[in-house]
Amino acid sequence: MLRDLPHVRLALAGAVLTFAGGARAAPSLSCPALAAANARARYESLDLAGVVEATSDLDACPDGTGAELAQALRWRAQALVTKGNLVAAEETFARLETFAPGFQLDPALSPRLHEAHQAGKARAVTERRVIVRLGNPKPGAAGAQVFAEVFSATPGPLEVLIQFEDGTGVKPVAASEVTAGQYQATAPGGATGAYRVLVRREGEPVFLSPYAHLPMPAAPPPRAELLAPRDVPAARAPDLTHPRPMEAAAANPARGGMPKALPWAFGASAVVSLGFSGAFAVLGATDKRAFDASVVDGVSTLPASELSVLQNRGNARFTAALTTAIVGIALGSVSAAMLASKD
Question: Quick one: which of 12, 25, 50, 77 could link to 92 by a disulfide (CB 3.0–4.6 Å)?
């Protein structure tokens, strides 16, 4: 089914932004910000498993701030607590506190969620956790430039070393901190293409990344051969007495045209689609209110079978509302474009 596909709700939401923006470009969201939006939509449609799925690939995100990563992890932890998986929720909060130390939860949220947050925070601080995200290396005249972003659950100076393979062993290079948490180093001569990041605190290693690969040197462009003047064909003057079919059609636009009723037909279809979207949204909101009313201290009091039916039905209704809204906005955009082209 549509709601079971990974990240489908996020893709639909992105399409809504694209159509609704019209001539204006939709704002570009980072990978974790998109994951957070997807997770929130799934949580509000009672799809707790979908929340966990939507936030399962955050380690692969190449961009986004620590605060954006923390927001995505917050929805993951909240879903895990609601499902009763407190161990996984505490580990999620430990990662959250590494990306964004001192993260504040809404005081009105469940006490169980706050307890899991405090336990995860204590774990991150006690273990002095560090997470490193590697950037895309760039080729340079003196050697490839490698980048690393370091997140730490506790304050204090860190030593970041880039270990390059040179065919005979590992050659460490101290990375320089360009901005807060952002480090950069240049690969030395002889580096074979593999490197990893080692982070030390007070001389003790606290993080060692897997090996990554440097970009291969770009091959020189093929040498261009110049043609002798006699080899260059002479340009012929265009024949203006016999226009080509495309030119003839452009010169006589009266032969074709858009039916006058077509833009209005698209507009009417858009209104119908948006009406269906509103109806599905109301039904989905009814299911959500029923679910919220059954939650006590972060756990639903409904039987498992009834909770599953409520979740699946609510998720399907919200998905239908979003899909029909996209169709309505798309039809409306086409109608507006047709009317504008006729003016």
Answer: 77
